[in-house]
């Protein structure tokens, strides 16, 4: 009888625990950590602005719903901002700069006003919470499941073209069990919304990084006079003395009559430059460069772009 009693107690202790889905991150050894740090140092950070993150679902849209203070949209925006920043690949623009994007009626060349390389537009397309119960003879369990769908678009600020668009879904759940009336009771878990949205966004952030990495880092010539050549970008974007870049003429822009969108043709390389000094702070960073080869017309600086050598 004692063995049976102890066995029942053991089962009660195990079954009363609360279970949650957890995503394990593989451990990184010392050598891999050094390699990742070297990659980050060589990677030229892109400037990104998150134009908006809207809630396209009907969740939390009651009588007094305020579109500007939507909790789901803000939640998703904060999660995306945190993940992009923690990746070490991007510089996110301040909210004051993002307000310029919100005033635009259409995606066009005016995106260049905000000084971003890329614009991200996101929306929560699906959101739902459900409860599932399971009752046995001596035990019962209750599960809360939250499912979220997130859509992101990555826009090239210099052309206004959408270069990446995808949707992903995430799920988070928690389960409580009790046996013979003993155990925890399931309460409302507000953290599940964060976890579900975070899971969906995580699936898309890596693709955003890959799409930006596949395209060369871009900058522009600010001035060219007796003091030298000055380009935009500096230390915070990982520019260092000795780095070399191509200077290309900006390709001609044509309108596609079939889609109505502008298409920019590839430009031609006209020169190569080398960084000798980086200075400035925040949005005012700059780099002084020397002309290694080719030539640059001082009177036509707005017709050139500085590109990373791939």
TrEMBL record:
Coiled coil: none annotated. The keyword Metal-binding does not apply. This is Curli biogenesis system outer membrane secretion channel CsgG. PANTHER family: CURLI PRODUCTION ASSEMBLY/TRANSPORT COMPONENT CSGG, CURLI PRODUCTION ASSEMBLY_TRANSPORT COMPONENT CSGG. Keywords: Cell membrane, Lipoprotein, Membrane, Palmitate, Signal. It holds the Pfam family CsgG. InterPro entries: Curli_assmbl/transp-comp_CsgG. Transmembrane segments: none annotated.
């Amino acid at each position: 009888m004692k063995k049976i009693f102890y066995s029942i107690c053991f089962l009660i202790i195990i079954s009363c625990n609360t279970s949650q889905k957890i995503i394990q991150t593989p451990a990184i050894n010392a050598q891999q950590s050094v390699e990742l740090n070297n990659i980050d140092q060589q990677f030229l950070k892109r400037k990104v602005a998150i134009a908006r993150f809207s809630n396209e679902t009907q969740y939390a849209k009651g009588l007094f719903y305020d579109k500007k203070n939507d909790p789901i949209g803000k939640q998703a925006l904060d999660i995306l901002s945190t993940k992009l920043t923690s990746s070490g690949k991007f510089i996110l623009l301040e909210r004051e700069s993002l307000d310029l994007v919100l005033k635009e009626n259409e995606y066009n060349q005016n995106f260049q006003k905000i000084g971003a390389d890329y614009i991200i537009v996101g929306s929560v397309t699906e959101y739902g919470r459900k409860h599932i119960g399971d009752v046995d003879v001596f035990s019962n369990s209750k599960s809360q499941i939250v499912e979220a769908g997130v859509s992101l678009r990555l826009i090239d600020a210099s052309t206004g073209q959408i270069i990446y668009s995808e949707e992903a879904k995430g799920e988070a759940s928690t389960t409580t069990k009790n046996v013979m009336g003993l155990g925890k009771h399931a309460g409302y878990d507000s953290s599940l919304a964060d976890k579900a949205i975070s899971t969906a966004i995580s699936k898309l952030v890596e693709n955003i990084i890959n799409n930006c990495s596949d395209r060369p880092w871009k900058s522009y010539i600010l001035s060219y006079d007796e003091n030298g050549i000055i380009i935009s970008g500096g230390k915070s974007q990982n520019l260092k003395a000795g780095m070399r870049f191509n200077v290309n003429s900006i390709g001609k822009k044509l309108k596609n009559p079939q889609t109505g969108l502008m298409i920019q043709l590839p430009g031609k390389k006209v020169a190569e430059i080398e960084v000798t000094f980086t200075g400035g702070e925040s949005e005012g960073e700059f780099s002084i460069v020397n002309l290694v080869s080719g030539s640059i017309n001082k009177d036509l600086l707005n017709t050139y772009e500085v590109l990373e050598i791939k």
